[in-house]
């Protein structure tokens, strides 16, 4: 978000415009810029923190590190999985406790301490005021139906049941009535690591089991929601910009290419950032200091350096951002940071256009 904030400041300076500290913080919140934020598994947790709880990126990173330390620092000593004894590697109570602390920490201002953990604000469905910008959040999970499993979308909003929709994942709105913590547990209940999580009478597990890259589901969801209001809405009109962030390239990268082609057909600006190498073999619960292969830019050779998991993640991500890559839809190799800046410029364009429309509407109503 640094590039987004800097772009906002540049434009404010050009317009000789002053903003309050509160407004400046809004520029650090992805929810200020996006209409939808979706994720699955641990990325589902990130989607919830950025979209539903309105955290800044820095706040999200801080809380993610705390959650990881709380959960993964204490594996069960015995977590053998077989037909006779099913025992997940980590205790779900640690997950619930860590997530509850995050939700309580970012409770609405003015909420009485005795009210923490209860009330409508703890529900995944967000209470919003008509007319205000509202970032919708989608956490993807897998629902266990007994004889089969299906991809399931937990929504922070109501998806109305419209007859004749060409494709609709569970427009039943059961999920949006669940607690934020329960949705977070459902989307991240990775088999072997955590036990299957129950919300009401339904069983859920990690969304990555079926939708490790939920880009296609997100695209369909946004288009459907737009067409609920206007059946003639095109995908290009429904989605002004699509940003997809991966967790390291793998052999399953092909699953995200459908959205690339759809964005191209709809003339929708599409951005995909995904670290090319170094993250593929990092395990979900890895948090160790160990020797890791890194490339020395001075000698152009690989070396082994002792790094913690978080330090390594940061290292390979920064290396990726400093590199060049062939970006979609352009065939030419471009600087990744140039593409990040292009994305930031688009996001600021859209937010400012929305701001102008809002001010125009407000002034019109006032007169």
TrEMBL record:
**What positions does the domain PNPLA occupy?**
1-219
Which Gene Ontology BP terms does the record give?
arachidonate metabolic process; glycerolipid metabolic process; lipid catabolic process
Q: Does the keyword Lipid metabolism apply?
A: yes
- What Gene Ontology cellular-component terms does the record carry? membrane
Active site residues according to the UniProt entry: 41, 206
Keyword set includes Mitochondrion:
no
Q: Where is this motif: DGA/G?
A: 206-208
| Disordered as annotated region, ranges | 1-22
Kindly give the InterPro entries that the UniProt entry links to this protein: Acyl_Trfase/lysoPLipase (IPR016035), PNPLA_dom (IPR002641)
Q: Which SUPFAM superfamilies match?
A: FabD/lysophospholipase-like
Keyword list, A-Z: Hydrolase, Lipid degradation, Lipid metabolism
Q: Which GO terms describe its molecular function?
A: calcium-independent phospholipase A2 activity
Q: What is this protein called?
A: FabD/lysophospholipase-like protein
Species of origin reads Glarea lozoyensis (strain ATCC 20868 / MF5171)
Q: What is the lineage of its organism?
A: Eukaryota, Fungi, Dikarya, Ascomycota, Pezizomycotina
């Amino acid at each position: 978000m640094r590039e987004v904030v800097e772009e906002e400041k540049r434009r404010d300076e050009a317009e000789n415009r002053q903003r309050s500290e509160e407004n400046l913080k809004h520029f650090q919140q992805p929810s200020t810029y996006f209409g939808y934020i979706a994720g699955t598994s641990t990325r589902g947790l990130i989607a919830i923190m950025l979209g539903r709880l309105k955290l800044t990126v820095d706040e999200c990173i801080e809380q993610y590190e705390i959650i990881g330390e709380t959960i993964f620092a204490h594996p069960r000593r015995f977590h053998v999985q077989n037909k006779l004894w099913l025992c997940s590697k980590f205790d779900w109570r640690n997950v619930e406790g860590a997530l509850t602390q995050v939700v309580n920490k970012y409770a609405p201002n003015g909420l009485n301490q005795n009210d923490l953990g209860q009330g409508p604000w703890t529900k995944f469905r967000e209470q919003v005021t008509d007319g205000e910008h509202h970032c919708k959040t989608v956490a993807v999970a897998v629902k266990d139906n007994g004889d089969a499993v299906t991809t399931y979308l937990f929504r922070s909003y109501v998806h109305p049941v419209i007859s004749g929709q060409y494709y609709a994942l569970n427009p039943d709105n059961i999920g949006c009535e669940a607690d934020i913590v329960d949705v977070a547990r459902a989307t991240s209940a990775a088999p072997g690591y955590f036990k299957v999580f129950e919300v009401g009478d339904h069983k859920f597990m990690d969304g990555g089991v079926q939708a490790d890259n939920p880009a296609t589901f997100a695209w369909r969801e946004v288009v459907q929601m737009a067409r609920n209001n206007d059946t003639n809405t095109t995908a290009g009109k429904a989605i002004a910009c699509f940003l997809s962030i991966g967790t390291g390239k793998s052999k399953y990268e092909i699953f995200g290419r459908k959205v690339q082609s759809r964005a191209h057909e709809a003339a929708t600006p599409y951005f995909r950032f995904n670290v090319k190498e170094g993250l593929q073999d990092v395990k979900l619960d890895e948090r160790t200091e160990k020797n890791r292969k890194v490339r020395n830019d001075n000698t152009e050779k690989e070396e082994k350096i002792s790094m913690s998991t978080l330090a390594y993640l940061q290292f390979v991500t920064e290396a990726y951002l400093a590199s060049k890559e062939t970006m979609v839809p352009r065939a030419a190799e471009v600087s990744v940071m140039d593409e990040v800046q292009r994305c930031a410029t688009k996001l600021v364009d859209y937010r400012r256009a929305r701001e102008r429309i809002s001010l125009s509407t407000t002034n019109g109503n006032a007169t």
